[in-house]
């Protein structure tokens, strides 16, 4: 859980700024336009700067090819070995992307990834999708992120990256559930869909939607 300290200890989470999400098999529209903004935020004095990566096995459950189905079709998935209706989740089937240790999983060229203090890997289990950088949707296992943030006494979590309607939103929702004051920097995020419903969902959760200019005033 978030630290009980009253001081402001901000963390920057750079979500999935990877080749496949910018130029590759699952490129998010206009993703290249946020690279410079993200780099400018990485130059600010956050207490920690953490990158996340999808790091999938080649037969990941989220891949259409794994199921011999059409890309962007949907299936029902369950926790491994626990096929109960109340545990069912709808899964969008994506093109093969961000396979572990392939060029598609690398941080996109131009991102100042050397400014990151650490990297969190997610989606590493073949049968479990995990949009959030905190934990999978069934809460079977958490990543190193909660422990890392707690160890540094972080109070506020700021998010940028890809994609706003999936991994950014889910990570922000979990950050709020873990007790952090949560901020999403809208001009440093791009989404798959143009609908924009993710912003309303996050605001209803109590997540603050800000722009990079506001964040510079907060952090410096």
UniProtKB/TrEMBL annotation:
Gene3D superfamilies: Isochorismatase-like
SUPFAM superfamilies: Isochorismatase-like hydrolases (SSF52499)
Ranges in a coiled coil: none
Keywords in alphabetical order: Hydrolase, Metal-binding, Pyridine nucleotide biosynthesis
Similarity-based family: Belongs to the isochorismatase family.
Pfam families, sorted: Isochorismatase
Pathway: Cofactor biosynthesis; nicotinate biosynthesis; nicotinate from nicotinamide: step 1/1
Any one GO BP annotation for this protein: pyridine nucleotide biosynthetic process
Domain Isochorismatase-like: 11-213
Protein's organism: Hypsizygus marmoreus
Name of the protein described by the UniProt record: nicotinamidase
Origin superkingdom: Eukaryota
